[in-house]
Design brief:
heterotrimer, A mainly alpha (215), B alpha/beta (257), C mainly alpha (220), B: 257 residues, alpha/beta, four-stranded antiparallel β-sheet, 12 strands, 25% strand, C: 220 residues, mainly alpha, MetI-like fold, 8 helices, 0% strand
Amino acid sequence: MFSISVFLESFGPLFWAARYTLLISVLGIGLGLVIGTLVCAARLSPYAWLRRSAMLWVSFLRGVPLLVQLLVFYYTLPVIGLDVPAMVAAVVTVGICASAYISEIWRGAIAALPRGQAEAAIAIGMTPRDIWTRVILPQAFNLSLPALINELILLVKASSLVSVVGILEITRASQAQAATTFRPLEVYIAAACIYLAINLCLAVLGRYLEHRTAI
Amino acid sequence: MVAASSVEIRKVNKHFGTFHALKDIDLTIPPGKVTCLIGPSGSGKSTLLRCINFLEQYDSGEIRIDGTMIGYDAPGRKMPGRKLREMRRSIGMVFQQFNLWPHMTARENVAEGLMRVRGMSRSEASQRAAEALTKVGLADRMANHPSRLSGGQQQRVAIARAIAMEPRLMLFDEPTSALDPELVGEVLNVMKTLASEGMTMVVVTHEMGFAAHVADQVVFMEKGELVGVDSPDRILHHPQDARIQSFLRTYHERNSF
Amino acid sequence: MDWSILQQYGPGLLSGFGNTILCWFLGTIFSMALGLVIALVQRYGSRWVGRIIQVYIEIIRGTPFLVQLFVLYYGGPLVGLRLDALPAGLLGLTIYGSPYFAEIFRSGFRAVSVGQIEAARAIGMSEPSIVRRILLPLGLVSSLPALVNFSIILTKETVILSIITVPELMYQVQRMSTETFRYLEANLVLALFFWALVETISNVGRWLEARVTKHLIERT
């Protein structure tokens, strides 16, 4: 019933497509880091309107399913006159979605630092800028590394959804493969294996970083 | 007078990995008497106490309660869970951290064991719980959750939880160590009352005053070994062994100012 | 907006809404139940069984929900598992959610102090009694925020079921938008709907949390 040869043959085209899965995930987390840092800064800012906007941003992106976000962005871009390739739209959507989670990761890491550390820095007369760049941010980054890797794993899985806007990543490629071979079971299990391999590698990396930073 | 158990500890050994926590411990705990275990931290006194109700499994030797070995049917053969639970019913234990169940009121904490273990009805268990709580002076606190009680009150609830089961032996694992100094007295007073009723008590403690005034025998342990067993007077006021002398010297230095 | 559209598609949207709530509710209940069983087996089962479960957890957590659905719905018939879209979707949600719930319960159980379990053992309570009376209530309370959080994630995952043609809200909205060409409006409204739903659930969760932890917070 389960054909090993069909299963093995599926890997060829799927590996090819895996490059797009990785590309979308990595660019997505890169964009998410940039926007997420800004959002986190906004949430910690002294201006109430900025904090509220950031909260709204986070709450909206965390409240709306990625698939819906994807379609909203996909259909909004042409309306506002931006005719970008589907790939760009996908990366932007994934990045924007990730920004909400990444800003929360930052915030959590900063909150997890003992208050006394900032106080100790103030006590020896450090400037607020030095306190942030020398004391708080370096530690927060180390603390949040495992969570960021975890976010990357989530993005790898979430990137399967961009198949609905026609990007030939692993899931889309496996759909095409299943349609031509009429062997969906083998093909989709092969796709699952590739995702699993990618994510296990990332998980191992995450665990390594966790041990390294646990001083 | 309550029915009181005796405990026989023979050649008990316990390892944590490669660490030899108890070394050939021999000790007799007479019925109706108070035995205090003292010694520096890490000496194995809490481990020994926890072996008596088999919360900690000893590797070799025998611990017999009223002649019945606890934990094992025969050397190396664990007793069935049902039989172990049966034995534990008559051994009360009070912990350093109280270990009350935070989702239940004081009264429910005491009644829980009566219902689940003794099979009492809810009303009967509740009645008995009220009596036990009254005995430890908490009649007016029965409806409170542990989070609304002081440390001393929590520990007294824990004692009520244990005595409500009508144990014949009570184990106390540093019952006052987690308490603020001003709350220690109320717990020690309850324990003194219990001792005067003829309960067999084994108490791991750092309260030398309690050991001196209430204990019938004092056991000094160090590095997993039993160094001395004698009357409070002989151990605490006229110690022969250099290790006991040095421990007491440190103790007095720390507690005088 | 043209209100005649609503008239025409109203019934479809309503049934879609019903199916979304159904999928979220049953999906959460089933996967939570399976997760609880997994967590208990991991705690009390043999090491051998624990390892097998760990492999299951890694596989489910390492692969996208969409691919799991494809394997189940399109691959299933090849091994004799023929399910309609809705039951397949529910089964998919149950399988997908279970390891996450299991992890939540597992860490909830770990948060119950050893001392509170020992106190129960010391008065001779049996293990099943300890699980029912001490471990579960305390573990559930400490995992409540995470449970609510993950049930919110599951709410959002239900839209993925539309891809395997489960007639839930997303599916109905897409059908409507392809027939009326109002893609953006339809999806925007859908987004707002989910936003409101998720905010509601998390507010209910916070309220619930405040209620059940009332007695667990030490007075200072």
